[in-house]
TrEMBL record:
CDD domains, sorted: ML_beta-AS
Domain CN hydrolase: 71-343
Gene field: UPB1_0
Name of the featured protein: Beta-ureidopropionase
Lineage: Eukaryota, Metazoa, Ecdysozoa, Arthropoda, Crustacea
Species: Amphibalanus amphitrite (Striped barnacle)
Domain of life where this protein originates: Eukaryota
InterPro entries documented for this protein: Aliph_Amidase/BUP, C-N_Hydrolase, C-N_Hydrolase_sf
Signal peptide interval: none
């Protein structure tokens, strides 16, 4: 299944044409987005490097009281480079080399902010429930080799880089976390955000390695907008998305690792719905490819033991608060997706739809407070007339 369809958009373009194609895309993706005229050199680098390169422009209305706030943000999806049996340092270095090439192409496309996929420096080995060698990929968020590596690239390219890693918290007894490090365009670490919701479904038994975040929903003020990072499984939780909006986020990145048999029908809905409900831009990022591990593992679902847990289907996309979205990147190959955004669109959509004005936080705060109590009773009205 995973290696059959390049993308849903590819199927549509091959089967429909003319007004019918335009109308289907309008219904599925909102307003038609202008493609970015990306540099010839960047396209040549993508072709040489065998990764997809795409770019789209989200516009806002011209205002008389505010200048446009135009930002170029990008996401990278990629496969691991070496087999999972290779030495840890070699695996990480190979991925560094691959992603550095793609970041250089992003810089050529004048990208200001870029986010990498969940646990980007390693295979997504948490399905195995084995501690070695996978825990060796963990490193300090503030002072680890991957952070130092990206600090140089961030300052070189004047680019904010969001780096989701397996963090080793040496200050707290070597505890592990699923963490995103936010590195400024000047090369210093602004801060970090951790995964708020941990899956325990199918092969995703990640609490073997780390638990839920203790950092809340931080939003990071950068030169290119206010950034939140909703890591992977948190995209299933509407309240999680909402909290980043309450804290003022304008760009919320969702670095993920998810496979087709589990979540693909949800993929195109959740980040897009969050953009609409919270009046900010969202970036859905999924890794790509099938990762095979040396030892078999089971899923406690009656299936035979296996060495992989399916195809990571890529399909990374960007969604806007006005319900428009880009096409997804390929389900099959590495890719770099660039989006030019006018952040003024966030307020313009809030003014038009009034969703924040009608949010009724006090109503839901009361309901949630009652629901969190051990003696909670659902507000159900019964028919006793029978």
């Amino acid at each position: 299944m995973g290696d059959v369809i390049k993308s849903v958009e590819d199927v549509l373009n091959n089967r429909l044409e003319g007004n019918e194609l335009s109308e289907v895309k309008r219904i599925l993706y909102g307003k038609d987005l202008e493609k970015l005229d990306l540099p010839t050199e960047a396209r040549a680098e993508a072709e040489k490097g065998s990764f997809e390169l795409a770019g789209y422009r989200f516009t806002a209305l011209t205002e008389s009281t505010r200048p446009p706030r135009v930002v170029r943000a990008a996401v990278i999806q990629n496969q691991i480079v070496l087999p999972t049996t290779a030495p840890v340092a070699d695996q990480r270095q190979a991925i560094w080399n691959r992603v550095a090439e793609m970041i250089a192409t992003a810089a050529r496309c004048r990208v200001n902010v870029i986010c990498l996929q969940e646990a980007w420096t390693m295979p997504f080995a948490f399905c195995t429930r084995e501690k070695q060698p996978w825990c060796e990929f963990a490193e300090s968020a503030e002072d680890g080799p991957t952070t130092h590596f990206l600090q140089d690239l961030a300052s070189k390219h004047n680019m904010v880089i969001i780096s989701p890693i397996l963090e080793r918290d040496e200050a707290h007894g070597d505890v592990l976390w699923n963490t995103a490090v936010i590195i400024s365009n000047h090369g210093h670490v602004i801060g970090k955000s951790r995964k708020n919701h941990i899956p325990r479904v199918g092969d995703f038994n990640e609490s073997t390695y780390y638990m839920e975040s203790n950092l809340g929903h931080p939003v990071f003020q950068t030169e290119f907008g206010k950034i939140g990072v909703n890591i992977c499984y948190g995209r299933h939780m509407p309240q999680n998305w909402m909290a980043y909006g309450l804290n003022g986020a304008e760009l919320v990145f969702n670095p993920s690792a998810t496979v087709g048999t589990l979540s693909e029908p949800m993929w195109g809905i959740e980040a897009r719905n969050a953009a609409i409900a919270n009046s900010y831009f969202t970036f859905a990022i999924n890794r790509v490819g099938t990762e095979t591990f040396p030892n078999e593992f089971t899923s406690a679902d009656g299936r035979p033991a296996h060495r992989d847990f399916g195809h990571f289907y890529g399909s990374s996309y960007v969604a806007a608060p006005d319900a428009s979205r880009t096409p997804g990147l390929s389900r099959l190959s590495d890719g770099l997706l660039v989006a030019e955004l006018d952040l003024n669109l966030c307020r313009q959509v809030r003014d038009r739809w009034g969703l924040r004005m009608n949010q009724r936080l006090e109503l839901y705060a009361d309901t949630l407070a009652r629901a969190a109590n051990p003696d909670f009773q659902p507000q159900v009205v019964y028919d006793y007339s029978g």
